Amino acid sequence: MRVPNVNIDVEHLETLLAIVDAGSFDDASIDLGITPSAVSQRIKALENRMGAILVVRSRPVVPTEQGYKVLRYARQMSLLSAEFARELAADKPLSIALGVNSDSLSTWFSPVFEQLAEIDDLSVEILRTDENRGLELLRTGRVSAVVTATPEPLQGCISKKLGAMRYRAAASPRIIKRYLHHKTPEELAKTPMVVFDREDPLQYDMLERVAGAGSRPSGAVHHIPDSLKYVSAVEAGMGWGMIPELQLPQATGIQTIHDQWFADVPLYLQRWAVDSSLLNKIDGILVTAARRSGLHLIA
């Protein structure tokens, strides 16, 4: 997409945002208070200006690869415009979306909510995402910042290390008594295992590390895609799992299996590289919360 010195109509960018968020041209027209024909004309004009098709006319509407680039720019402009408008009129509300992995939400993130609650007229949307997959939300402009395990910043973004979350192999006393008499790697491979979801490699990586490359579980494997219920499933005796060290004090019904059976998952904050006072404030809030929880102590 070759767009040298392009001046983009802000109204057209707002229309693109409305279409993607609403899912269709008709629904966007209702949100914008204009006719569907006017919505179509604005998008056609924007596409002509950019020299590329920006959305697939399906239901819901899906941005093209080039459309995602423009969409991210549109969201950045929307945030900066809202901040500027707020400087002129104190009652102008702001909104922001953040991508956060489930284990962070259930452990060190509570102080973040307390700080966000002190920002007047701010609407916050938290999108729960895996720390290994959240960058797609940032790349497409769906969120302004994301907690991720990837250190290399996306183009147009900055990356800052928060620390690391330590996970320990743990199980209920019943599971340990039944399957892990000697707590050997061979016994671990035969013990039922609890995994967050099918995309989660943590337990499999741990098993390979202690039992050797290529080692796979030979017992039952359960999938529980919720951080709190995941711990409950391990406490109930469904199998062993990797529990965040920050959750262990509250998980009274489980025990760590072996002192050396742990894994550290690095966490980084990636955010748009724009001069936004709101993003700068949220950046500071997350870094402070991570530090106070002790994430920075695990390099």
Automatic annotation (TrEMBL):
<keyword id="KW-0805">Transcription regulation</keyword>
<keyword id="KW-0804">Transcription</keyword>
<dbReference type="InterPro" id="IPR017685">
    <property type="entry name" value="ArgP"/>
</dbReference>
<comment type="similarity">
    <text>Belongs to the LysR transcriptional regulatory family.</text>
</comment>
<dbReference type="InterPro" id="IPR036388">
    <property type="entry name" value="WH-like_DNA-bd_sf"/>
</dbReference>
<dbReference type="InterPro" id="IPR050176">
    <property type="entry name" value="LTTR"/>
</dbReference>
<dbReference type="InterPro" id="IPR036390">
    <property type="entry name" value="WH_DNA-bd_sf"/>
</dbReference>
<dbReference type="GO" id="GO:0003677">
    <property type="term" value="F:DNA binding"/>
</dbReference>
<dbReference type="Pfam" id="PF00126">
    <property type="entry name" value="HTH_1"/>
</dbReference>
<dbReference type="GO" id="GO:0003700">
    <property type="term" value="F:DNA-binding transcription factor activity"/>
</dbReference>
<dbReference type="InterPro" id="IPR005119">
    <property type="entry name" value="LysR_subst-bd"/>
</dbReference>
<keyword id="KW-0238">DNA-binding</keyword>
<protein>
    <submittedName>
        <fullName>ArgP/LysG family DNA-binding transcriptional regulator</fullName>
    </submittedName>
</protein>
<dbReference type="Pfam" id="PF03466">
    <property type="entry name" value="LysR_substrate"/>
</dbReference>
<dbReference type="InterPro" id="IPR000847">
    <property type="entry name" value="LysR_HTH_N"/>
</dbReference>
<feature type="domain" description="HTH lysR-type">
    <location>
        <begin position="8"/>
        <end position="64"/>
    </location>
</feature>
<keyword id="KW-0010">Activator</keyword>
